[in-house]
Design a protein that fits this description.
The complex is a heterotrimer of chains A (about 325), B (about 450) and C (about 350).
Chain A: H1 2-18, H2 20-51, H3 58-74, H4 79-102, H5 110-132, E1 150-155, E2 158-163, H6 164-186, H7 188-198, H8 200-206, H9 210-235, H10 249-256, H11 261-286, H12 291-305
Antiparallel strand pairs in A: 1-2
Chain B: H1 2-18, E1 30-36, H2 43-64, E2 72-78, H3 83-94, H4 106-119, E3 123-124, E4 142-143, H5 149-164, E5 174-180, H6 183-186, H7 189-199, E6 202-208, H8 217-226, E7 230-234, H9 239-249, E8 257-259, H10 266-269, E9 280-283, H11 292-302, H12 317-340, H13 347-355, E10 358-359, H14 361-366, E11 376-377, E12 390-394, E13 399-401, H15 410-427
Helix pairs in contact in B: 2-11, 2-12, 3-4, 5-7, 12-13
Chain C: H1 13-16, H2 23-43, H3 46-72, H4 80-97, H5 103-122, H6 130-150, E1 163-164, E2 169-170, E3 173-174, H7 182-205, H8 207-217, H9 219-224, H10 229-256, E4 258-259, H11 266-279, H12 284-308, H13 314-335, H14 340-353
Antiparallel strand pairs in C: 1-4, 2-3
Helix pairs in contact in C: 3-7, 3-10, 3-11, 3-12, 4-5, 4-6, 4-10, 5-10, 7-8, 7-10, 8-10, 11-12, 12-13
Classes of the chains: A mainly alpha (about 325), B alpha/beta (about 450), C mainly alpha (about 350).
């Protein structure tokens, strides 16, 4: 019994103290994982903020964007041209989704739109596999100018290795978040997006063109998906297995709030760090592998105390 | 309103289609279904394997007119590595009298094992599936040559011991197992635990949940903390390249990282590129196109456009694996024809044919696969053979030979297999005792 | 002309309040049951029974379970797969501890274990609503999946981590395991599913069902008129998990014959959720229709090209099938957001006034 208490409450901190380089490394890994989760969550937030749709297809859009990029490159197109072409494809996708899916489902309850994105997911899975095949592909990270290798910092008897690509990912994600936050706050289109998020009908009555707004917001989500795909793909490989990671964004959204862009990053970092620290120091007690559900439990505990998340809008229920 | 009518019309059409009989006609020829996964998260591994299998059998059709003069009917059934679809494929192909079944997924093999004896269709789960099914007395209808996962793990220990200067020198060392948190991944654990007791090394387990296959930083952080001397990688699909990349990231010595035979795909090491130089993987088939069988496949099938394989993928590790699988099938059919005296064999004949399989060096040379694989022999009580494998080494761009043939620690593996088989039969009340006769080997 | 209540007089209150007042409805159900009990096992081949009908019935039962929770009570749940898993593993442990007891009893009893787990994970529903609750149930899903893989007690410490179904008999006939005949297993599944559908129908047409629907429509107002939210919501979770648990036990014991933990992952939860939403939230018929569409249609689509003689590769057929299913889901949602059940109701409505347009 005492041994158990020691193991739960004291031993992990002892470990943290005796091997500070591992602690810093764990924190860094958590930060990186968090940033990557928040990139996915960002795509969700964008679409949810502007059209009230929880886009389940965000995961497959990440894969699709990455596959398109690599696919273009495989056909001999230089990297940056392929990037531009992929952006064009994502715009086309946003346009098609708006036309075929969102326009007919205007003003339907949220669950119906959520289900429609399920249908979109299935469609994109089939379409992606048909066009690109199921083989895993290598992300063209170096051709895009992303750095390789690592920065090694020697500290406290060990070393902390920071992968340059992870640093790049963190920087890119922060830039994106900042740009999007400015976009939503300062520009006319951003304000229109927020108006649409509040109420479709009211926005229409004020003269905002819903179709135009939706295409823009899905295109923005597509760009975020592309960035996410590049970053995740560079860390491992581009294949349909990436799509499963999208579910990890849900706890991030819970923590950060469904409609908050800075919340996505902060929530992501909290979940990422919490997950890695929990898995590394407390995981072996429970049998390890607790990463799969730790994030959800963290989110759940959070929900019980603050249902709208850190930055979300307060939910007011009226009769 | 019009859309409602459209929908009603579609529904009626679908209903009429449902009345289409879902049986198939049995054609004249030996039916070999290939359960494949060209879709889904493991398609990267599945596609080259089924390509190799289909190409070899089609080559036999084109070059020799089949086996013993009877053509082979090769048909693929897509499972997507999903057990539901696998079971559905099984029901569909059962009606056409297949002679052998290759489920190619541990998840699909497990439910089919009890059905094999009832439906009289032997299952060839080449080097995957249930390790315990190597015991032919408990599993007369299941075959898993040339080596089980337990053999593979024992070969890893033997290799590691060899590099350390002897198996006794493993005492006190740390051996890590990075595995997919699924029945496939857990297979080597009992053997490694038994060997840890025998040789005195410490076994550390690092499970990777299937949902976290591409997010393995925690596991490799743990490895950095524990510093195991040797690591065995029992992974599949997207787990492998991520693992290799993470190992390179933490500067783990690549020549101490050894993958099992499903972690030796080109796509597993290529993403890490130069960083994966020295990575070793167990293999029981050779790589490359420098063998008469592969040349024949190129001549009769690929160049004639009868194959789905892109020409530059012929000779890849997993492609050749598929070819080896088909070689076993073909030899089994040939044997079955000899043992039963019939040309148009059934599942029961195939079982006898597989049970008397004896592909020795001379036979390998005859079929043009000299040195392609180690010779393998199956006996009535040993449906595996516990044959040798070698280490392939990644040199930065391709796989090359990294060691000679390594024999498994058969004396350690066999008792465990028999114990596990007994457990299985005991846990499943009513498991039939072996009633099939044992033919003498050819 | 044919489907009207003209001439059907009710002479007592219970007949007036019956669930199926029209004679034609009762005849229709009778015909469906006749086809299910007599025609299909007699004329159907092994593929139809084993690969289509048994899974269809199992998924319909799970869809009914989820529909009770999501459709009737309005609590979105993504943990269906895990609750099915609890039922399957509970049945497995029960039958390994007490091999002598009839397996049917254990299949039904495993539902209670699943219900208990469902209640525990349903507790957050009191504070959390709507989409956030889905995340709470996802926590249940991933936690239970982890338990099935990482806690060896669940699979009796066997080396492969998978559970195998032992052969069990009922009146001397093998009912589970490889020796059980297709028809036997089909009848067991059919019997259990029909009985539980009847039970669910009575539940939703009665007081409890009305309580659930009140909670779904507006739980604040329901609380105001005196419905105890805690009990109602937890009861919904319990009953729903019971159904899912039994469905899970049937899935493993009567269909697969063995199971590895990956069977009850989050994909299964989404699969059942699709069925419920396409079929129609808040409708038992919808559960069946949704299960038929989501499960049977892909199979039919897969076999059309070979039958029509079009030489497409199986993998390509698979891809196209995904695309068609995805497009169909979106199409159905556009045309009829309330699901197939609503289409069915509209159809019946048209039939009542046929041949007149209104």
């Amino acid at each position: 019994m005492i041994h158990l208490i020691y193991q739960i409450f004291i031993d992990p901190f002892v470990q943290m103290g005796t091997a500070p380089d591992l602690l810093v490394q764990t924190l860094w890994e958590g930060l990186v994982a968090g940033v990557l989760y928040s990139l996915i969550a960002l795509g969700f937030v964008l679409i949810f903020k502007a059209s009230g749709v929880f886009n389940f297809a965000q995961g497959i859009m990440v894969v699709f964007a990455a596959l398109t990029l690599v696919g273009f490159h495989e056909h001999g197109i230089p990297a940056y041209v392929a990037l531009a072409l992929t952006i064009a494809v994502m715009f086309g996708l946003a346009f098609a989704v708006e036309r075929a899916m969102l326009r007919p489902l205007v003003n339907q309850p949220d669950i119906i739109l959520f289900m429609a994105t399920f249908g979109l997911t299935y469609f994109l899975i089939g379409f992606g596999e048909l066009v690109f095949g199921g083989d895993p592909k290598v992300m063209i990270a170096s051709q895009l100018g992303l750095p390789k290798g690592a920065v090694e910092i020697k500290m406290a008897g060990g070393f902390v290795s920071l992968q340059k690509i992870d640093i790049a990912a963190a920087i890119i994600a922060s830039v994106m978040v900042a740009a999007l936050a400015v976009f939503f706050q300062k520009t006319r289109v951003g304000r229109a997006l927020r108006a649409v998020a509040d109420s479709h009908k009211a926005a229409l009555s004020v003269g905002i063109s819903l179709e135009y707004i939706w295409v823009i917001v899905w295109f923005a989500a597509g760009l975020v998906a592309l960035a996410t795909g590049i970053m995740w793909g560079a860390r491992s490989e581009v294949s349909f297995a990436l799509e499963i990671i999208a579910l990890k964004a849900l706890p991030v959204l819970i923590l950060g709030g469904f409609t908050s862009i800075p919340g996505a990053i902060i929530g992501g970092v909290i979940i990422g760090v919490g997950e890695k620290i929990g898995e590394f120091y407390w995981g072996p007690l429970l049998g390890s592998g607790i990463e799969t559900w730790l994030a959800y439990v963290i989110a759940l505990v959070f929900l019980l105390f603050r249902p709208q998340g850190l930055f979300g809008e307060r939910i007011i229920e009226r009769i | 309103m019009r859309l409602h009518r459209v929908l009603l019309g579609t529904a009626l059409a679908a209903a009429t289609l449902l009345t289409v009989p879902l049986t198939a006609s049995a054609a004249d020829g030996i039916y070999v279904p290939l359960l494949s996964y060209r879709t889904g998260p493991f398609a990267g591994s599945g596609a080259p394997i089924v390509n190799g299998m289909a190409d070899y059998l089609n080559m036999l059709n084109e070059r020799d007119g089949g086996i013993g003069g009877v053509k082979l009917i090769v048909e693929e059934c897509e499972t997507g590595y999903d057990t539901k679809k696998g079971l559905e494929c099984y029901e569909q192909v059962k009606a056409k009298n297949p002679v052998v079944l290759n489920p190619y997924s541990t998840g699909i093999t497990l439910p089919l094992i009890p059905k094999a004896a009832i439906d009289k269709i032997p299952i060839l789960s080449m080097a995957y599936g249930l390790s315990a099914s190597a015991d032919g007395n408990v599993f007369p209808w299941i075959f898993n040559p040339p080596a089980t996962y337990w053999d593979g793990a024992s070969m890893f220990i033997r290799y590691a011991g060899g590099k350390e200067g002897g198996l006794e020198r493993l005492k006190g060392k740390k051996i890590g197992l990075v595995y997919l948190d699924a029945p496939y991944g857990k297979e080597p654990i009992p053997l490694l635990e038994a060997l840890a007791k025998d040789y005195g090394f410490e076994l550390k387990l690092y499970p990777v949940p299937a949902a976290e296959m591409q997010n393995q930083s925690s596991q490799w952080l743990n490895i950095r903390r524990d510093k195991p001397d040797w690591i065995y990688l029992q992974g599949f699909g997207a787990m492998n390249p991520t693992a290799v990349k993470e190992a390179a990231k933490i500067n783990y010595p690549m020549d101490h990282l050894i993958g099992n035979w499903w972690a030796g795909n080109d796509d597993d090491a290529r993403p890490a590129g130069d960083g994966a130089k020295g990575y070793l993987s167990l293999d029981f088939n050779q790589v490359g196109t420098n063998y008469k069988v592969i040349q024949d496949i190129l001549k009769y099938v690929v160049d004639k456009g009868k194959s789905q394989t892109p020409k530059d993928r012929v000779g890849e590790n997993l492609y050749n694996r598929g070819v080896l699988n088909s070689i076993i099938i073909a030899e089994g059919i040939r044997n079955a024809q000899k043992v039963s005296g019939k040309k148009q064999i059934t599942g029961e004949d195939m079982r006898r044919g597989l049970e008397t399989l004896n592909i020795n060096d001379a036979r390998l040379k005859e079929i043009g696969a000299d040195g392609f694989a180690a010779p393998m022999k199956i006996a009535c009580d040993d449906h595996n053979g516990h044959n040798a494998a070698y280490m392939a080494k990644w040199d930065g761009t391709k796989w090359v030979k990294g060691s000679d043939w390594i024999q498994p620690l058969k004396s350690k593996v066999r008792p465990l297999i028999e114990a596990a088989a007994k457990d299985y039969a005991g846990a499943n009340a009513g498991w039939p005792k072996r009633s099939e006769a044992c033919d003498k080997s050819s | 002309m044919f489907y009207r209540e003209v001439g059907q007089y009710k002479t007592n209150y219970s007949a007036d309040m019956s669930v199926m007042p029209l004679l034609q409805d009762r005849v229709g159900i009778g015909i469906i049951l006749f086809i299910a009990v007599v025609i299909i096992p007699y004329f159907g081949n092994a593929f139809l029974i084993q690969a289509i009908m048994i899974p269809f019935l199992v998924f319909s039962l799970a869809a009914i379970g989820l529909n009770l929770l999501t459709g009737y009570t309005g609590l979105l749940s993504l943990g269906t797969g895990a609750f099915m898993g609890v039922g399957a593993y509970a049945c497995y442990k029960l039958t390994t501890y007490f091999p002598g007891v009839n397996i049917l009893i254990w299949i039904v009893a495993s539902g209670f274990f699943s219900a208990a787990v469902g209640v525990v994970f349903g507790l957050p529903s009191l504070r959390i609503k709507g989409f956030y609750l889905a995340v709470a149930t996802l926590a249940a899903q991933f936690f239970l999946s982890w338990c099935f893989i990482r806690q060896p007690w669940f699979y009796n410490y066997n080396a492969s981590g998978a559970i195998e179904v032992p052969t069990r008999t009922l009146f001397g006939i093998p009912v589970t395991g490889a020796t059980a005949a297709d028809a036997t297993r089909y009848y067991v599944v059919l019997g259990i599913v029909v009985a539980m559908t009847w039970l669910a129908s009575n539940l939703v047409h009665g007081r409890i069902g009305r309580m659930w629907m009140a909670v779904r429509d507006m739980d604040l107002a329901a609380e105001l008129i005196g419905i105890r939210l805690l009990r109602t919501k937890l009861l919904a979770f319990a009953v729903s998990s019971f159904y899912c648990g039994v469905a899970g036990a049937l899935l493993v014991f009567q269909w697969y014959g063995s199971a590895e933990p990956a069977v009850f992952d989050v994909n299964l939860s989404f699969f059942i959720l699709f069925m419920v939403i396409i079929g129609g939230l808040g409708s038992l018929t919808g559960s069946y229709l949704g299960a038929a569409l989501i499960f049977i249609l892909p199979i039919v689509l897969r076999y059309i090209p070979p039958h029509l003689g079009i030489p497409i590769r199986p993998a390509t057929v698979d891809h196209i099938q995904y695309m068609i299913i995805g497009a169909l889901i979106v199409l159905f949602l556009i045309v009829e957001p309330n699901g197939l059940a609503r289409l069915w109701q509209i159809g019946k409505q048209k039939l009542r006034v046929w041949p007149f347009p209104y």
